[in-house]
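Hi support team,

I've been running sequence recovery on a batch of backbones for a student project. Most finish fine, but this one hangs at about 90% for roughly twenty minutes before it completes. I'm not sure whether the input is malformed or the queue is just slow. I've pasted the structure tokens below so you can try to reproduce it. Let me know if you need the job ID as well.

Thanks,
M.K.
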């Protein structure tokens, strides 16, 4: 297993570096038995089907937003967030931590989630990352644990792009 968190003084050197770290954490966490157990406990309805809205609501109740300290960027491994949920009842993090956790949990129960980034106003760099679930129409449905409800993204985003 990789270390629990990755820290960077200042911003990551580009979005691709941050996405690569989330992907590495996802790969390390996907086979972790506690990750799979939590995903299964949250995702399935009474008929054995994945209930994405219910999954979102359950998971959202287990995370608390806590921004990184100014000038430092942390990304927690999903397995570490799951351990935090198991030991203290909830996990703290910001949008990249939540995206890594949701991306991993969704994939572990067969939901082909994608990473999305968003901008505020005319910012040069993306300032928010979240998970989207592709729909048959080619659009996505936001699975953004920072937002108020399933299908919404954090308020104020003016641009959104898939990061495959």
């Amino acid at each position: 297993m990789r270390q629990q968190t990755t820290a960077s003084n200042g911003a990551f050197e580009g979005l691709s570096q941050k996405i690569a770290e989330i992907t590495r954490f996802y790969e390390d966490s996907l086979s972790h038995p506690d990750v799979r157990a939590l995903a299964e406990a949250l995702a399935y309805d009474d008929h054995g089907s994945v209930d994405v809205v219910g999954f979102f609501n359950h998971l959202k109740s287990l995370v608390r937003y806590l921004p990184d300290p100014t000038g430092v960027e942390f990304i927690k491994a999903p397995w570490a967030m799951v351990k935090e949920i198991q030991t203290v009842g909830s996990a703290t993090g910001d949008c990249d931590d939540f995206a890594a956790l949701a991306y991993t949990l969704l994939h572990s129960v067969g939901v082909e989630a994608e990473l999305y980034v968003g901008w505020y106003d005319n910012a040069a760099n993306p300032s928010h990352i979240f998970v989207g679930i592709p729909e048959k129409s080619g659009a996505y449905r936001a699975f953004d644990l920072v937002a108020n409800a399933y299908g919404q993204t954090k308020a104020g985003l003016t641009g959104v792009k898939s990061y495959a």
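--
Follow-up from support: It reproduced on our side and the slowdown came from queue contention, not your input. The helical segments are 15-30, 33-43, 52-60, 78-88, 95-108. No action needed from you.
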